[in-house]
Amino acid sequence: MKFALVTGSTRGIGKSIADELEKEGYTVFRNGRGEGQEYGHYVKADLTTLEGVNTLAGSILRQTDLLDCLVLNMGSTCRKPMSEITPEDWYEVMDTNLNLPFFLVQKLEGHLAKGGNIIFISSVLSLRPHAVSIPYGVSKAAVNMLAQCLVKEFAERQIRVNVVCPGFIDTQWQKEKPLWLREKIAGKTALGRFGTPREVADICLSLCRNTYINGAVVSVDGGYDME
């Protein structure tokens, strides 16, 4: 039996990744901040805090001592202008997107199966500067480097570490944007549309299957900024 943990997996991209891994035969531990009784293996934990990280890791390790796949899908942003960003705003985004995912990997690293894999969900905004959310772009760019550093850390155990950088994906987060903004974003994308969570999940599944992809930073953005 293969075990996977997908954080932030009750909706959107995370849910789609968890769904596809289950279809592939994994027993998937899901995580979120709300209730999730509809899922067979669900752990409620707030991963914006170290306490939440400890809660999640402890719960997983009480249920299995070996993980084959770890998908880190936590994310937070701050859309304030630079002049209005407070230290608390900055630290919250850095903690959620970079610092706490690192400490979750640290908590679980001794229980990752040889030949397993870790996937960080980053963002196309880690690769291209954007007019909104400086801390988000900076934190996700740091995630890309963290993943590549971990490739060296886990090389002896042949644990692969890769990054997926979604562009603008049609999740609830994007659906709440006004129509004019959605049209502007779609117009900046070569394919002229938003992506789907399933299209991101398909890439994650490919990374699980292909045992020679390691240290990759894969964009799934429809050609954003290449219109």
- Distance separating the two termini: 44 Å
Query: What string, H for helix and E for strand, traces the elements in order?
Result: EHEEHEHEHEHHHE
Q: Describe the strand arrangement of the main beta sheet, using strand numbers.
A: 3-2-1-4-5-6-7
Q: Share of helix among residues?
A: 40-55%
Principal-axis shape equals globular
Which band does the percent of strand residues land in?
15-25%
Roughly how many Å is the radius of gyration?
17 Å
Q: Which structural class matches the secondary elements? A: alpha/beta
Average pLDDT over all residues = 94
Sheet with the most strands?
7 strands, parallel
Tell me the total number of β-strands: 7
What ranges have pLDDT less than 50 throughout 5 or more consecutive residues? none
Helix tally equals 7
Fold blueprint:
Elements: E1 2-6, H1 12-23, E2 26-32, E3 42-44, H2 50-63, E4 67-72, H3 87-108, E5 112-121, H4 134-153, E6 160-166, H5 172-175, H6 179-187, H7 197-209, E7 217-220
Helix pairs in contact: 1-7, 2-3, 3-4
